[in-house]
Each structure stands twice: as structure tokens, then as C-alpha cells.
């Protein structure tokens, strides 16, 4: 089978790799679509210099083989099912996993191809192999929607940790792909949501997607008022302080997006205390978040939201063009497969 390997900045090869065979508790999935996220963008641009590497972790496809231990097992994916795939290697035994916080698994992530090349998912390929428990059915949903299972699970994790409740007032800082997924899922849960971004185009697109209000950072409080929850999906200097300023008493700031290394912030402990403000981080996803994301995809309830986030789709043999577009052009999601 073919698998894409990034060998340097702006360089990607399609290599031959043995087609995987399912172990007793595994399934083999023929990849239908893989999303290109920030990781692929940084590898292709040379921001993250880890070469050679086989990336691609936002994967969906059709099950083609099922291990004997799970064949016919009620609830397990079966041949022909469309699934979205969790490619994290959760160890299950470290302190984080034992506490139910497997998003923070202490076992180093990643694997290797047959020639020793580092794998960060290796989902830009014809096939992937995964534990059956980490393949989640998405029913009749389009494969483009199923390929958004991983980022949508991350957003479900963010909203769960933030304690989102129906009728909450929510501000989402950053109107890119992850901000729009926060908007879709929070609105589905009954929240009143606004978007904060520097791009007038993305603010306008967010309003068209159902945001109650949209504003530049300096006008966010004027436009949206005080908030119960502020999700930061785009980290930058000064954003944390601005997010806390947007919070009403008892409010919560969720730091979802990564910040540049070395960026600090000035936070008033007295304000946190007297106004009962909560500041927390949300990283990756966990099995219960996958279950919610897959069920929501299968239901079709946010299908229009997901359709609007597909910027382009390329075949696997055009992976170089796909990476170039995703790395050098403002996009929501570019899919390969």
C-alpha cells in the first residue's frame, strides 16, 4: 500500500508499505479521507523539524477486515462499516490513564513504519490498522464528515471540561476551523455563541453559520457583553488576559488552542478568587468524547456546519498539492483521500 512521508520542508513522498493485517482485537480500515491539521502544516513548512515522518491522524474510512476476537461482537465495527478512527496509543496503565485522563497518557505517542520511519498516525495512506475499540461507527454520514471525528472529539472534550450548559453565554476566540467546530457543537447544546477574530471575512462566515454576534477583539465586550464561558482556540500574546476580562462572575476560560512557547500572561489571583473565575486547559480527547463525536456525525444534526468547513479534497497521489494548499493558504479543512 501507499503511505505519505514528509521528508523535509515542502517535500513529501509516497512510499510502499506492507498492507496491514488485523490482529485478534483489531480492524483494518481502508482510508476514505484524512484531514490535514496544524501538525501537518508545521511539518510541511519546516516549523516542526521531525523528518522523515508519516503524519495524518484525522482519519475515516471503511472497515475491510476484522480480527477474530471481535468479529460478530455486538457493538464492534464490522466489515463494510464506515468509521472514524482514534489513532492515539493510550497505554491504559500510567497515572493519567488510571485516573481516566487518557488524553494526557504519559506513554510517548507515535510508532514506526516497517523501515523505521517515525509515524504520527500515518493516516495519509491507503489503509490503517487500529484496535477495534478505537474505531467508531458514523452510520450513513458522508466520509468528509466522518474524517472530522478526531477534531470534533477534541471539541467535545473542550466543552465537557468547560462544563458547558444549555443557555450559557459563550465567546469563542478564533474563528478558524476549531473555532467553527466549537460554534457548531456549542450551538447544538443550546448555548448562545459569539466569535472573536481579526478577520472580517471569517467573522462574516461565522455569522452566516449561526453565531449570535461577531467582533474584533477590541469590540468583543461591547458587542457580546460578559460571558459564562470563553473558549480560546487561537493562542497569542494578550489573549488570556482579554478572555478573562470577557468573563462574568463565575465564568470559565478554556485554553483549547496552543500558545507559542515562552508566551506568558499576567493574571490577578485576587480577581480569580473574588469573582470565582476558572481557568483551565483542554488538550486532545478521550473515549467518551469520541463516542459523542461519532454519534453526532452519524445523526447528521450538524451536517451543514461540517459541509461548510471542507475547503478542498485531493486524492492520495496529490498529497503534495494538498499539503501546499493547507500550509500556505487560509483554509478550514483540506482532506486527502
Could you report the average pLDDT, rounded to the nearest whole number? Answer: 97
Radius of gyration, in Å, reads: 20 Å
Largest sheet: 7 strands, mixed
Which word captures the global form? globular
What is the number of helical segments per DSSP (H or I, 4+ residues)?
12
Structural class: alpha/beta
Residues in helices, as a percent range: 25-40%
Contiguous runs where pLDDT drops below 50 for at least 5 residues: none
User: Beta fraction of the residues?
Assistant: 25-35%
Total beta strand runs: 18
One letter per element, helices H and strands E, the order comes to EEEHEEEHEEEEHHEHEHEHEHEHEHHEHE
Can you walk me through this structure?
This protein is an alpha/beta fold and 337 residues long. It contains twelve helices and 18 strands. Strand 14, helix 8 (239-246) and strand 15 form a beta-alpha-beta unit. The longest helix has 14 residues, at 149-162. It is globular and about 60 Å long.
List the helices and strands and how they pair.
Elements: E1 2-8, E2 11-16, E3 26-36, H1 38-45, E4 53-54, E5 58-66, E6 82-85, H2 95-98, E7 111-112, E8 118-119, E9 127-131, E10 135-137, H3 143-146, H4 149-162, E11 169-173, H5 177-188, E12 192-196, H6 200-208, E13 213-215, H7 220-224, E14 227-232, H8 239-246, E15 247-255, H9 269-274, E16 278-281, H10 287-299, H11 303-307, E17 310-314, H12 319-328, E18 333-336
Parallel strand pairs: 4-8, 11-12, 11-14, 12-13, 14-15, 15-16, 17-18
Antiparallel strand pairs: 1-2, 3-5, 3-9, 3-18, 5-6, 6-10, 7-8
Helix pairs in contact: 1-12, 4-5, 4-10
Amino acid at each position: 500500500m501507499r503511505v505519505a512521508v514528509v521528508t523535509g520542508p515542502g517535500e513529501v513522498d509516497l512510499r510502499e508499505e506492507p498492507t496491514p493485517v488485523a490482529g485478534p482485537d483489531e480492524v483494518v480500515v481502508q482510508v476514505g479521507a484524512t484531514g490535514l491539521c496544524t501538525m501537518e502544516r508545521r511539518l510541511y513548512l519546516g516549523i516542526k523539524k521531525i523528518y522523515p515522518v508519516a503524519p495524518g491522524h484525522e482519519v475515516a474510512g471503511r472497515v475491510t477486515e476484522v480480527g477474530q476476537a471481535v468479529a460478530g461482537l455486538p457493538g464492534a465495527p464490522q466489515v463494510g462499516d464506515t468509521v472514524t478512527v482514534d489513532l492515539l496509543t493510550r497505554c491504559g496503565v500510567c497515572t493519567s490513564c488510571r485516573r481516566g485522563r487518557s488524553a494526557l497518557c504519559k506513554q510517548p505517542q507515535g510508532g514506526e513504519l516497517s523501515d523505521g520511519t517515525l509515524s504520527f498516525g500515518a493516516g495519509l495512506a491507503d489503509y490503517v490498522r487500529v484496535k477495534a475499540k478505537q474505531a467508531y461507527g458514523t452510520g450513513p454520514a458522508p466520509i468528509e464528515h466522518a474524517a472530522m471525528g478526531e477534531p470534533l472529539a477534541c471539541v467535545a472534550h473542550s466543552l465537557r471540561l468547560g462544563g458547558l450548559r444549555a443557555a450559557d453565554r459563550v465567546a469563542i476566540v478564533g474563528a478558524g476551523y476549531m473555532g467553527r467546530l466549537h460554534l457548531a457543537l456549542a450551538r447544538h447544546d443550546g448555548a448562545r455563541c459569539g466569535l472573536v477574530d481579526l478577520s472580517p471575512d471569517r467573522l462574516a462566515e461565522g455569522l452566516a453559520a449561526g453565531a449570535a454576534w461577531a467582533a474584533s477583539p477590541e469590540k468583543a465586550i461591547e458587542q457580546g457583553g460578559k460571558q459564562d464561558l470563553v473558549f480560546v482556540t487561537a493562542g497569542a500574546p494578550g489573549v488570556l488576559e482579554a478572555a478573562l476580562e470577557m468573563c462574568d462572575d463565575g465564568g470559565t476560560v478554556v485554553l483549547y488552542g496552543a500558545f507559542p512557547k515562552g508566551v506568558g500572561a499576567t493574571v490577578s489571583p485576587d480577581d480569580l478568587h473574588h469573582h470565582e473565575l476558572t481557568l483551565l486547559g483542554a488538550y486532545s480527547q478521550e473515549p467518551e468524547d469520541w463516542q459523542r463525536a461519532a454519534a453526532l456525525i452519524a445523526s447528521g444534526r450538524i451536517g451543514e456546519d461540517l459541509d461548510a468547513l471542507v475547503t478542498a479534497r485531493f486524492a492520495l497521489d496529490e498529497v503534495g498539492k494538498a499539503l501546499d494548499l493547507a500550509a500556505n493558504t487560509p483554509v478550514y479543512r483540506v482532506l486527502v483521500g
